[in-house]
Amino acid sequence: MISIIFWLLASLSCGFVWLHGQAEGRKAVGLFVIATLLTWAAQTMDTQWRQTHWPLFTVDAAYLVAAYVFALRSDRYWPLWITAFQLLTVATHFATIIAPDYLPKIYSAVATFWVVPLLLSMVAGVYLDHREFRRLVPRNDPVLLPDPPA
Fold this sequence. Notes:
Strand content: under 5%
Number of strands: 0
Number of helices: 6
Helix content: over 70%
Largest sheet: none
């Protein structure tokens, strides 16, 4: 059931960001989809969560680097939010290295928890950018914003 909710949230969020996020949104969705597919593959390698999940740690660290580079090159603020949530995900893996006496259920829950705020921050950031653009550009300017179809 949780898997269905995740895929529904991911699909809706990525769809919204793809449609309204312009080039920045499409890049963010592309990175997220690649990271999600690699995460799925990494999770099939070890399903016990009894020690640090190294394949997943590798994917999460690579996505953190990609998100960081993306945020540095962007002129928007919301890519920084993505990077921050991904940093929390990677910190979860470091916590299992520092304190190996953890409960596997807690590790798996916390390592996957931060994807929800990450998705919601992408949606919120694109929504705020879209709203600000609409505020700055007059609706009757035919060059920048065409009138909606009748």
